[in-house]
Amino acid sequence: MKLELRGITKRFGTLVANDDIRLTVEPGEVHCLLGENGAGKSTLMNVLYGLSAADAGEIVVDDEPVSFSGPADAMAAGIGMVHQHFMLVPVFTVAENVMLGAEQTRGAGLLDVEATRARIREISEQYGFDVDPDAVVEHLPVGVQQRVEIIKALVRDAHVLILDEPTAVLTPQETDELMGIMRQLTANGTSIVFITHKLREVKAIADRITVMRLGRVVGQAQPESTESELASLMVGRPVSLVVDAGTSEPGEVVLAVRGLTVVDDRDQLVVDDVSFDVRAGEVLVVAGVQGNGQTELTEALLGLGGRASGSVRLAGTELLGRPVRDVLRAGVGFVPEDRRTDGLVGQFTVAENLVLDLYDRSPFARGPMLRHSRIRSNAAERVGEFDIRAGSIDTLASTLSGGNQQKVVLARELSRPLKLLVATQPTRGLDVGSIEFVHRRIIAERDNRTPVLIVSTELDEAGALADRILVMYRGSVVGIVPGDTERDVLGLMTAGYAPEQAFEQAARHPTRTGHPEHGGGDEGEP
């Protein structure tokens, strides 16, 4: 199926989100729509999927103009969409989610769940999805939930599949699996519109690339273009893709973690006897596949999460067992994994979010009374310093792009004296320009002699930022290695190899990774 967008324009008041957008998606191709957060990519796809009406322009399917009053019309025309934030009911089974909105019945109006189960098994077998129709969605890993979304579209006979930032919540391994699925889909004639800002992925999967900036198409590119060329086209200026971390000079131990053990609310051991130090002027990155205890580790440091034992000492003061407020006021800055849920209050303004952990203290409060003038002047200063792109300091945080939401969190946490900065997945879902900014601020904080603990599933990021890298697997520390350790070695360690085994295996098979318990090494190896 051939898809064309001709002169699509979409306005929100005085804001022109899409300005005369023209693009063509050929049958069986992966067409990447590349651009920063806020470039208008998702708005354009919402128009294509019938979620928004264009103010001008037309959608053409196989040379015939079409008009969509809602997603049902788009699906009927053969267009499916997988949203960045999945549209699944967590307590429903896979089959129930797939049939929702397209219910099949039999007999006396009874739902024909078995027909849906059979179709899910058929698609799952065809593409190697390995999805159980009777599994409850909330119990599935994120990567499998995404496959359920794709199955929903395929069950409805989608010939064009829109994937909106599909790797934003995936691990590197899940991303590789998704790439394979995309190639299978296009081999069977499905066209894919792949919305992203990740240059490595674009070069790996794209057949053609359209670049958007500030609501307009600013150019077409080929996968052979360099990452620097694509980044410059996205941002409109030269962008450094290499973190200029310089050399660090770690000082005394500031954070000392000893024997940290965490049991979750299901009595599962999720952090198992973890010990490490972070020194002044050092970045320690905790690497590993999502779900190996990193989240629970950082929650324990902050006084969140499950039952924790062991010791967490910051500059000699024990933090374990103290409430979150006390931990923050001991000098810990925290950038959480989920900025929307844990980092911001969406219905608060930018100004209010910038003082969430300081609103009741001088200079933002006098006794029980807030000092609104000080809160507003602080916001104006931080918005300028951190290049937060918002309509005003009174803009609701929920309306900001992901990159600007992250800048609000960083501005709040870095604008007070810190003894430790903890940041989990600090650049997840961010565009190239925002990633460059976040990395520079993290290195600047390190150079200010603050110990920095980063949790990242991105091995490239770990190598770029870290002075040392701690790798976790199944809740335990596999090993701690220098920050310049090769990506292949780190990949093997995230699969459970001890450092010495990973170095040996990587030297023998430079591009080979695997699992030590599932055929990852040669016969006779671990």
Automatic annotation (TrEMBL):
Main localization of the protein described in the UniProt heading: membrane
GO CC terms in record: plasma membrane
UniProt region (Disordered), positions on chain: 504-526
SMART domains: AAA
Gene Ontology terms for molecular function: ATP binding; ATP hydrolysis activity
CDD domains for this protein: ABC_Carb_Monos_I, ABC_Carb_Monos_II
Gene3D superfamilies (alphabetical): P-loop containing nucleotide triphosphate hydrolases
InterPro entries documented for this protein: AAA+_ATPase, ABC_carbohydrate_import_ATPase, ABC_transporter-like_ATP-bd, ABC_transporter-like_CS, P-loop_NTPase
Bilayer topology term: Peripheral membrane protein
Residues covered by the ABC transporter domain: 3-239, 255-499
SUPFAM superfamilies attached to this UniProt entry: P-loop containing nucleoside triphosphate hydrolases
Keywords: ATP-binding, Cell membrane, Membrane, Nucleotide-binding, Repeat, Translocase, Transport
Subcellular location: Cell membrane
Amino acid composition bias (Basic and acidic residues), ranges on this chain: 514-526
One Pfam family in the UniProt entry: ABC_tran
Protein name: Nucleoside ABC transporter ATP-binding protein
Species: Haloechinothrix alba
